[in-house]
Amino acid sequence: xSDVIDRPILAEEVAAQSRLRIIDCDVHPSIRAHADIxxxxxxxxxxxxxxxxxxxxxxxxxxxxxxxxxxxxxxxxAWPPTGGPPGSDLDFxxxxxxxxxxxxxxxxxxxxxxxxxxxxxxFGAAIQRAINDWQLAFWSDxxxxxxxxxxxxxxxxxxxIAEIERCAKIGRYVQINVCPRANEPLGRRRYWPIYAxxxxxxxxxxxxxxGYGGHAPTGGGWPSYYVxxxxxxxxxxxxxxxxxxxxxxxxxxxxxxxxxxxxGFGWIPSATWRMDRHFDAFRSEVPHLKRRPSEYVKQQFWFxxxxxxxxxxxxxxxxxxxxxxADRLLFSSDYPHWDFDDPRYAFKTPxxxxxxxxxxxxxxxxxxxx
Length: 370
Hints:
The protein has 370 residues and is α/β, with parallel strands linked by helices. The protein contains 13 helices and eight strands. The chain is 39% helix and 10% strand.
């Protein structure tokens, strides 16, 4: 979690791990105004956006679960002096984040307009296409450090494949993003054509927390508080990891690389232990799995670090990193959101130089072919 930075970062505060050039795998750009995105939308969908707006798979129409004390889930110091929402001003992002923390590359993760949660799938696909173009025009073209992701709503596989093909021809996107809260669990076969194409193209499949699947975000129903909603992100990721592994996605697509983004990693050991235990007891039910679930997790899945689970004793975080594996972790800051992890202070336990280089740079460089 971050403190508010209300002054320039001092040179002596730039610690060794931030002098190591960082690949930040979770940077959120924002649309400054709808006019910015409308130029990439067909007229038919421009009018739809103006007239009808978003029709989402959630009962919370016109509101969000985010606390009023931090609107747009942003750091208070991240509001650009030029106006617009946090993350919408490239020059301010450079000044506040990319330059002082020596970010070599930032992987863009767009959350605007609830792109994966539209009830009208054709409208959702049009928005995804527009935002894919906007990412290049407004961010990657203006700063080559910022790498775009192909947004592809998985609930209409035909639209998703068409968009993946279109963007792949452009050749400037580093991953394919789908949503963890979809109509059905991500392991279902209806989504497999997307995984097949990702594997063929050699693009990692990114799964960033969020979205509305039309279902309660917890197994116990709708939460009362934002803190419950935020906690449920880890539950969602654990459920989707379980679905992907046990339905056989990594077995069917052995070269597919899957990245869980902004879900933390403290839950991975217990989720994996439980899968292994149940696999040992019920393996006859899932004969399509040739190996224990933990073996798939350790070979085909990566996890971004933010929000880092912070036990009271540093040795427990140390044990967690060792169990998950430094090879599996990708540093992410979640800039400019309120629970931003500053790379200078994110790990409350010592890392070896080899571990630091892997987590802050090397793993992402290899995964995204940077």
